């Protein structure tokens, strides 16, 4: 009979005293190591919807959809079955790396891949008041204006967004009149409409 080596014997005695290294999953929920790199999770309150994370994801595990209906919104999507937990999204996040963060969630199994292999959050969108095109998420405009400080007041789109967020100005209304004249300059506008209203002679 082959005798066990001393190291194996020591491990066996240790396991007898301290219990096995393996967890009793699924009988008991597995607790991962604190440094475990699990699924990234969006933080609805901290994310500003800037899409930096979508740009840097190396495997296309992040995506977004904009809808411009009566309640314009951006849906950010994380495909949990594609993610490789590289943390590039967290590193690139402009919201102090808090908009999306790796968690210790390791549970990846699901029954229906079509319906369960992704997680989403929604952010309010700001549309151009002349052409109705997407400018950015409202939280992103707020984030920019906070970074700019008093310089915000040199840009009507930013200061009007700020006033609307504070409830001082009316909510976003897409203009019925598309004259793109100088009277339109004090509106929330996309870059193209801002340029056209600035250059117009009306
Ligand atoms: S952890 Fe990496 S792969 Fe997963 S969503 Fe973030 S950037 Fe993409
Ligand atoms: S704030 Fe962070 S998590 Fe949100 S879209 Fe931008 S980079 Fe992604």
What portion of residues is helical? 25-40%
Q: What ions, cofactors and ligands are bound? A: iron/sulfur cluster
> Which term fits the overall shape?
elongated
* Low-pLDDT stretches: none
Strand order of the largest sheet: 2-3-5-6
Q: State which percent range the strand residues make up.
A: 15-25%
- Helix count from the secondary structure assignment: 7
CATH class of the largest domain: Alpha Beta
Q: Rounded to an integer, what's the Rg over CA atoms?
A: 26 Å
The CATH architecture term of the largest domain is 2-Layer Sandwich
CATH topology of the largest domain: Alpha-Beta Plaits
The quaternary state of the protein chains shown equals single chain
The number of domains: 2
Q: What is the makeup of the main sheet?
A: 4 strands, antiparallel
Structural class: alpha+beta
Tell me the series of helices and strands, N- to C-terminal. HEHEEHEHEEHHH
Mean pLDDT: 87
Counting DSSP E segments of at least 2 residues, the number of strands comes to 6
Distance linking N and C termini: 100 Å
Question: Can you put this structure into words, describing what you see?
Answer:
With 202 residues, the protein is of the alpha+beta class. The protein has 2 domains: 36-126, Alpha-Beta Plaits, CATH 3.30.70.3270; 128-202, no CATH class. 28% of the residues lie in helices and 16% in strands. The chain is built from 7 helices and 6 strands; from the N terminus they run αβαββαβαββααα. The chain has helices at residues 6-18, 52-56, 88-92, 113-116, 138-148, 156-165, 191-199; strands at 40-42, 62-67, 73-79, 100-102, 118-127, 134-137. The chain has a 4-stranded antiparallel β-sheet with strand order 2-3-5-6. Strands 1-4 form a two-stranded antiparallel sheet. Helix 5 (138-148) crosses helix 6 (156-165). The mean pLDDT is 87. Bound molecules: iron/sulfur cluster (2 copies). One iron/sulfur cluster (SF4) is lined by residues 40, 57, 59, 61-62, 78, 83-89.
């Amino acid at each position: 009979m082959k005798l066990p080596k001393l190291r194996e014997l020591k491990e066996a005695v240790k396991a007898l005293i301290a219990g096995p290294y393996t967890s009793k999953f699924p009988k008991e929920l597995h607790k991962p190591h604190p440094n475990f790199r699990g699924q990234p999770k969006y933080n609805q309150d901290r994310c500003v919807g800037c899409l930096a994370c979508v740009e840097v994801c190396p495997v296309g595990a992040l995506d977004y959809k904009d809808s411009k209906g009566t309640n314009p919104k951006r849906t950010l999507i994380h495909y949990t079955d594609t993610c490789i937990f590289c943390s590039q999204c967290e590193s690139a996040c402009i919201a102090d790396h808090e908009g999306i963060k790796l968690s210790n969630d390791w549970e990846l199994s699901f029954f229906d891949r079509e319906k369960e292999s992704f997680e989403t959050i929604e952010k309010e969108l700001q549309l151009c008041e002349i052409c109705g095109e997407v400018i950015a998420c409202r939280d992103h405009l707020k984030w920019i204006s906070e970074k700019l400080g008093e310089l915000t007041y040199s840009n009507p789109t930013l200061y009007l967004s700020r006033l609307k967020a504070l409830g001082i100005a009316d909510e976003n209304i897409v203009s019925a009149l598309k004259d793109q004249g100088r009277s339109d300059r004090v509106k929330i506008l996309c870059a193209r409409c801002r340029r056209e209203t600035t250059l117009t002679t009306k």
